[in-house]
Amino acid sequence: MTGCQHDLTGARRVRPGGTPTRTAGDASDDERRQWLAVGMTDWSRLRDIYGSAAGVPALLDEAASVSDWDAPVWQELWSRLCHQGTVAPASYEALPTLARIAGTRGDVAVDPALFLASAIIASTDGPLHRAEVRRLHATHIDGLRPVAEHKLGLVRARVDVLYALGVVAALDGSVWQRGLTGLADEEIELDCRSCGEHLYLEPADGRLVMTTDADLVDADGSVHPADPAQLGPAETRLVGLCRAHDHAEVETELLQLFGRTRCPSCGAELTLAD
Description:
The protein is mostly helical.
C-alpha cells in the first residue's frame, strides 16, 4: 500500500489514494437539501479535538469532492474529529455528512469518508458511550453497512481487505474491529488474563504465533484455527463476506484470529475475543 491512511482508531496508516466520483454538486434536489443540513448546526458552539468546531463545515464541504487520503482536508478532519481514537462533540455532529459523502461515491475502493465515520462510531474515547452513539445514529449506520460491504468487492490487496472488514466490524459493533486492524498492521497485543503477561500475536510462515517477545517467535505458540462450523454470528458474517468476495487468503487468517492458543508464560488457554 502507498500513501497515508488512518485506521479505525485514528492512527496514521499507509494506503492507496482514491479517485473522486460524485460530489455534492452532482446530487439530486433531495440530496442537496441533506447536504445543506450541516449549515443548520451552530458549529461555533461545538468543540472538536482542539477547540471551536466553527471551521469544520467548510472542511466537510471541501472534502465532499476529494477522495485522496493524502489531501490536507482529510488530514485536518481526522486530526480534529478522531485524533488517535479520541472524538469530540463535533465528531458526532459530522457523522450524517460523512455518511452522505460516503454514500455518493460507492466506486471509491478505500474512501476516507467511510473510514472516518466508522472510526467515530467505533471510538471508546469520547463524551458519549458507544452504545448511545449507535442509538442516535442508527439510521446512518444502517445506511453505511451496504456501502462498506460493497467495498469488499472493490479491494484485492490483503491489507485493504482487512481494513475494509474492519469498517464492517465497526459498523456492526463487533468485538473484532480492533483485531482486524491489528492483523492488517501486524500489531496485535494483549495481556494474559491469568498471569498478566504482555503478549504479542505475530505472523510467521503463514501462521499466527503467540509470544512474549515480538522479536522471538516460537512455533510452539501457534494459534489453532477456529472450526468454521462452530463460529459465532459475528465471526460467521466476516468469514462469509470473505467467501462472497473471493478473499480466501484473508479467510484463512480470520480463522486463526478467531482461534485458540495458550499463553507461552503460564499455559492458560487464550482467545482474542476474550
